[in-house]
Structures are given as structure tokens and as C-alpha cells.
Design brief:
By secondary structure, the protein is α/β, with parallel strands linked by helices. About 35% of the residues lie in helices and about 20% in strands. The protein binds adenosine-5'-diphosphate and magnesium ion (MG).
């Protein structure tokens, strides 16, 4: 885990990014001239109509795909442009929506697999770190269980710990709690809040759930309907750690109104353009 003495990294600068899929053929403009800044250690919630280009941006930062023009920098280093595209690495960990754990491995084996297999840490040290992480979030005792023995909510938490053990600069989550029920989501939010407050690092969190975005984010980045550009940034000045009673506060309701209005405007445009699936 990051100690207070370590400087938090993970500042992302997105500069005039355009992404065109299949330029010679169907020519889908997914992002156009998209620019915004993420400071190191920010929890950024990204919202916008379905199909607007959120995952496209995540893929560029993670190094899964290239961009057509513009630049992305991480801590001042160019990581994505037409001249340079760095590969996926453990400094930018992605937690997928349907990211599966290895079903034939225990929780412990799943969490330590990456760093051990890549030879970055000895197995015993990784196991110690994993145990500490599990107990910090009240999940001790599940080390030897197999994924199928766990609820989907616990599986999701283990997936996130598996990403965090790499101590990435940036954690990217793409609608990670889609499909979980409201109660399970609440538990996930508290869990994320706990791990984030214990060791702040940049979180790039894509969601279509506006309450989730405001509850977790210190800023909510609202994207336009496709092609994705920055529509608006709403700064969430609620105190940390966020607690669920805040969702009823006047300040919260005001933020919700502001986010909803911007999202609704874009969702309407998307709908009129024939993209029926809404944010
Ligand atoms: P979001 O994550 O906001 O829902 P995406 O970034 O996945 O949106 O997609 C943005 C647009 O780009 C969508 O219209 C999608 O259909 C299109 N798209 C995504 N990937 C590809 C691809 N590999 N080839 C062509 N079009 C794509
Ligand atoms: Mg997506």
C-alpha cells in the first residue's frame, strides 16, 4: 500500500483526442477533440450516453487501442498519440465489467497471480500483502475459497484487490457494478471508498449510475453524445469518506440536479440521433 511519504502519481492529461474506428470503411467517429485533465489521486467518474465513446477513451489510456489524433500523457509522459502508444502495463490496471477470476484458483492464488508470475514479488511477500488487504476490508477468511463459493459482490471485491495489489498509478473500472442489485452496490461503494481513502490513487470510473458517480467521484466528467467530447465537469465537494446519509443532503441533491441536466441533454440528442440505448 502507498504510504504517506510516497508521492501520489497518476495525473492524466487528455489533449484533443480523436478516435475514428475503421477510417477507410464505416468510419465511426467515437471521440472528437476530447480534452480534460485528471490530477494525481483523483476519483473521476465518467458518465455519458451509451455508445458515446467512454470505453474508447479507457482503451487508449490502458494501451489496448490507439487514437487517431491528439495526445494522452501520464505524469507528464506521452503514452498515446499517433507517434507513440505504450502497451498495457501494471501501472494502469483495468477492472472489467465481466472480469472473471480464474475459477480453478483460490482467492489467494487469484490475487497474487499477476505479480508472482511476472516475477515482481516473491510468493510469500505477495501472500502477506494480499492477506493484509483482505483483512483491511473485512474479507479475511476467504483466502482458500474458490470463486464459485463466493457471492458475486465478494467476487467483484476480490477482482478489485487483484488489481490493487499491483499498486497501479491508475485504476480503471468500466461499469464494474452493472448487474449488481442496489444493496450489493452499496456494499461495493463502501468498499471502494475504504480502499481509496486508505491509499488514494487515480480512479477512472465509468458508470451510467449518476448516484454512484456523485457518491464516489470528486469530480463527475460528463461526455457528450457520440463523438465523445467533454460536456461538463461537476466538482463534488462532499467530505471524505463519503457516507450514504450524504445522498439525502441538500448539497447532494443540487449536484444531482446539475449532473442530471447535463446528462439528460446529451441523452436526448443521442435518442434523437437514433441511439436508443440511454445513459
Ligand atoms: P461507450 O463505452 O461510451 O458505451 P464505446 O467507446 O464502446 O462507447 O463506443 C463508441 C462508439 O464506437 C460506438 O458507436 C461503438 O459502436 C463504436 N465502436 C466501438 N468499438 C468499435 C470498433 N472496434 N469498430 C467500430 N466501431 C466501434
Ligand atoms: Mg462502454
Amino acid at each position: 500500500m502507498t504510504t504517506a511519504a510516497q508521492q501520489i502519481q497518476g495525473a492524466i492529461s487528455i489533449r484533443n483526442v480523436t478516435k475514428i474506428y475503421d477510417p477507410e470503411g464505416v468510419h465511426v467517429v467515437a471521440m472528437q477533440d476530447c480534452s480534460f485533465e485528471i490530477a494525481a489521486g483523483e476519483f473521476v467518474a465518467i458518465v455519458g450516453p451509451s455508445g458515446c465513446g467512454k470505453t474508447t477513451l479507457l482503451n487508449a489510456i490502458a494501451g489496448f487501442d490507439t487514437i487517431t489524433s491528439g495526445e494522452i500523457h501520464l505524469d507528464g509522459e506521452l503514452i498515446s498519440s499517433t507517434r507513440k502508444q505504450i502497451k498495457p502495463d501494471v501501472d494502469r490496471m483495468v477492472v472489467f465489467q465481466n472480469g472473471a477470476l480464474f475459477p480453478w484458483k483460490t482467492v489467494m492464488e487469484n490475487i497474487i497471480y499477476g505479480p508472482v508470475v511476472q516475477g515482481r514479488v516473491k510468493k510469500s511477500a505477495a501472500a502477506g500483502a494480499a492477506r493484509e488487504m483482505l483483512s483491511q476490508v473485512g474479507l479475511n477468511g476467504i483466502e482458500d475459497k474458490y470463486p464459485e463459493e463466493l457471492s458475486s459482490g465478494v467476487q467483484r471485491r476480490v477482482e478489485i484487490l487483484r488489481a490493487l495489489i499491483n499498486q497501479p498509478k491508475v485504476v480503471m473500472l468500466d461499469e464494474p457494478f452493472r448487474g449488481l442489485d442496489a444493496v450489493a452496490k452499496t456494499v461495493m461503494h463502501e468498499f471502494l471508498m475504504e480502499v481509496f481513502c486508505a491509499a488514494p490513487r487515480t480512479m477512472f470510473f465509468i458508470t451510467h449510475d449518476l448516484d454512484e458517480a456523485i457518491f464516489l467521484g470528486n469530480k463527475v466528467v460528463i461526455m457528450t453524445t457520440r463523438p465523445a467530447r467533454l460536456k461538463k465537469i461537476v466538482h463534488v465537494n462532499l467530505p471524505w469518506p463519503r457516507e450514504h446519509h450524504m445522498l439525502g443532503s441538500e448539497a447532494y441533491l443540487e449536484l444531482k440536479r446539475e449532473v442530471l441536466e447535463a446528462v439528460h441533454e446529451e441523452a436526448k440528442k443521442a435518442f434523437e440521433a437514433g441511439e436508443r440505448e440511454m445513459a
